[in-house]
Design goal:
- By secondary structure, the chain is of the alpha/beta class.
- It has helices at residues 9-25, 35-43, 46-49, 55-75, 81-96, 108-123, 158-172, 196-211, 215-224, 264-278; strands at residues 129-131, 136-140, 143-151, 175-180, 191-193, 230-240, 248-256.
- It is globular and about 60 Å long.
Length: 288
């Protein structure tokens, strides 16, 4: 098992130009004062800088690569005009808003990156997925299945986030809510672990601690049939002793449903989704 993002500095150094070309193709100006432009400048001529990067800058480089890869990989698989329009909207948000997950009050750009990353996470497992309302649409044996992506900036608004996600899902049909808890990552990065298994174990314990006190609310929505389940996710930069690279990005996802509270159909749909998401890369369940 490998980390979720393993990219050499040589490859990272080539990403800024690719991102700029994508923005040119969609006729969007990258704001000079934007976080995106800051990351692009940081990674320009990266091979000339890499030996002089401090800890903070190294972490920023790895944050930048996630953003760049989300943009580049999504741009390579756009299926139709509707998806291109949704992607263009995401590009606008990414250059117009802060990219720091802990931005006070939240940031649309952070949620856009989460949405694009989650889409690629699905595609890498062989699932047929695309950008579309509410955020992601995937093909299942029983028809279209919908994903609403929510970055949780404040647990004070958690109830509101879930309610809005429920409305979005029900408006389209059946689906799940994907939650990004990264704004609540208060572990000093990079976390230092021996292998990827230790990294995932650390993040799963952290995730469990974050949503434990909200189980009553989650169960209420599940019992009401508002959605089939939740994919609760967090990502972290790690220094993995057994990895060939100095820093890696590790993503951990907890899948939450309650068979005893849900209808059989609802639970079966979510079970199929979960199986697909947990299969090895390019060996999807619904995507076959």
């Amino acid at each position: 098992m490998h980390p979720d993002v393993v990219t050499s500095y040589e490859k990272i150094s080539g990403l800024p130009d690719r991102v700029r070309l994508i923005y040119e193709e969609f006729e969007i100006d990258i704001r000079p004062d934007s976080d995106l432009n800051k990351y692009l400048s940081l990674c320009d001529n990266l091979l000339d800088k890499v030996d002089f990067l401090g800890k903070k800058e190294s972490i920023e480089v790895h944050r930048a690569q996630r953003i760049f890869l989300a943009i580049v990989e999504c741009s390579e698989s756009l299926t139709d005009l509707e998806e291109k329009a949704a992607f263009k909207g995401a590009l606008n948000q990414i250059t117009s808003n802060p990219l720091d997950p802990r931005t006070p009050g939240g940031s649309h750009a952070v949620n856009m990156i989460f949405e694009l990353e989650f889409l690629q996470y699905m595609k890498l497992r062989g699932m047929k997925a695309r950008l579309g309302e509410p955020d992601i649409v995937t093909s299942a044996p029983f028809g279209e299945y919908f994903v609403a992506c929510k970055t949780i900036n404040s647990f004070k608004k958690f109830k509101k986030n879930l309610s809005y996600g429920s409305v979005q899902i029900n408006r389209k049909g059946n689906g799940v809510i994907a939650l990004n808890f990264e704004p609540h990552l208060y572990i000093e990065e990079p976390i230092r672990v021996y292998d990827i298994f230790e990294a995932r174990y650390t993040l799963e314990r952290y995730l469990n601690g974050l949503y434990e006190k909200h189980k009553t609310l989650l169960n209420k929505h599940l019992a009401a049939g508002d959605f089939d389940g939740l994919a609760i996710q967090i990502s972290c930069i790690a220094a993995i002793t057994s990895s060939p690279t100095s820093l890696d990005t590790v993503t951990q996802t907890v899948y939450y449903s309650r068979k005893n509270l849900q209808t059989k159909d609802s639970h079966n749909r979510f079970d199929g989704f979960q199986q697909s998401m947990q299969r090895p890369i390019s060996l999807g369940f619904w995507g076959q």
